[in-house]
Amino acid sequence: MPIDRAPSRQALIEHLLRTRIAGDVATTRENNLDHYRELASGNRYYWLGLELGDRWTEEDAVLQVMAHRCGVVPDPGHRAGQDTIDPELTVDALERLAIRLRKAADGRQRVLLATGHPGGLLGVHQATAAALRQAGCEIVTIPEGLHADEGRLLQMGGVAMVLRGAALVHTHSPEPMAAILDAMDEAGRPLPDLVVADHGWAGCAGQRGIDAVGYADCNDPALFVGEAEGTLAVTVPLDDHVAPHYYDPMTAYLLDAAGLL
Predict the structure, then answer these.
(1) Which InterPro entries match (predicted)?
(2) Is 206 exposed, middle or buried, given 0-12, 13-18 or 19+ CB atoms closer than 10 A?
(3) What is the mean predicted confidence (pLDDT) over 135-140?
(4) Which phi-psi region, left, alpha or beta, contains residue 136 (left: φ > 0; alpha: ψ -120 to 50)?
(5) Phi and psi dihedrals of 84, rounded to 5?
(6) What is the pTM of this model?
(7) What are phi and psi of 113, to 5 degrees?
(8) Pick among 3.20.10.10, 3.30.40.10, 3.20.20.140, 3.40.50.10490: CATH of 1-261
(9) What are the tens digits of pLDDT across the range 102-130?
């Protein structure tokens, strides 16, 4: 489906299920529970730049948040096999995200977009950046010469990411976003009004007190926990690593709901 044509809500839900962006996703229950356990045990790699303290020390509490906000199987006795993302929750979150994008457009706000998952979500972020720029937003240009996470920070189509050697990097680290925000602060540049991102890029921005929205898979619980605590404004549940063009109808739905298509 072309990105300039938005599906209906029901058509999008059917597409999410068919492409396994939601529904019976590829991530296994074992992998999900392992990541929930790591977050609860205090492994900061799984905190995605958030500071969770000792507020989330029980795996079952994390599971409850993920069942409520992402749609994984709520039964703690389900320990192996298939897990799920509820497509209704995905679309609900897209509609909440659209409201925040509309606010950014109406206020011609400064928006920083970034991805730690360029293999899947880069096109989503680039289309969002283009639509916001067309609406009059300032798409924040990151400072030059920054390095983090063993790579160089760059932007493509208004989206920040990490380049390591000749490859765009899949990273959960909050360090790239921290490097950008620190450099902007040191240069006396105003920080973004809104960050649209994923992984540690979104978590770090939210932890710094910036209005942040993000996309997250069912094995990345931290951003959902952050939304539950109010540190992130919106977290959209989806499988973040399907074929990139599968996200086009979802992106069209988002931008249409925001009045940006």
Answers:
(1) Phosphatase_SCO2771
(2) buried
(3) 98
(4) left
(5) -135, 160
(6) 0.96
(7) -115, 140
(8) 3.40.50.10490
(9) 999 999 999 999 999 999 999 999 999 99
Residue 28 has a CB neighbour count (10 Å cut-off) of: 15
Domain ranges of the chain: 1-261
pLDDT value of residue 3: 65
What does the block give as tokens for 213? Answer: 């929205």
